[in-house]
Design brief:
mainly alpha; 129 residues
Length: 129
């Protein structure tokens, strides 16, 4: 198995493990509960995001998807919790995907966006880059 394929499988497994830990597969739509779960799993999210930025999908699709994300965020009328907006946007893209390749691209490009909106471990401030 090539190292690229192994890294892709690793990201898929890390994401599966994260979703299982968070109970996201159970369809819990309570943003407050989900936000708490995201914060509790911040280190895992950062680890997945770090792995994602080294993928071919990230290199190929980062700019256009990030632009679509910013446009979607700008189109919201109310100030959003950026962390929850990013997480929910990624989950919508994943759950509405018709092909596994779309799931891979969504995960590998949007998970780093989600990680940007996690509070910094030390100060509690956001680490948006």
């Amino acid at each position: 198995m090539s190292s690229t394929r192994r890294e892709s499988d690793d990201i898929d497994q890390m994401m599966t493990d994260l979703l299982a830990l968070m109970g996201a597969h159970e369809g819990n739509g309570l943003d407050g509960t989900m936000r708490g779960r995201l914060l509790a799993n911040a280190d895992r999210i950062r680890e997945i995001a770090q792995a994602c930025v080294h993928t071919r999908e990230y290199a190929s699709h980062n700019a256009p998807i990030t632009e679509r994300f910013r446009a979607a965020m700008d189109a919201t009328e109310e100030p959003a919790d950026n962390l929850m907006f990013a997480w929910n946007w990624m989950m919508r893209m994943i759950t509405s995907a018709h092909e596994i390749s779309t799931v891979h691209v969504a995960t590998r490009v949007i998970m780093p966006i989600v990680a940007r909106y996690l509070p910094d471990n030390k100060s509690g401030s956001l680490t948006v880059h």
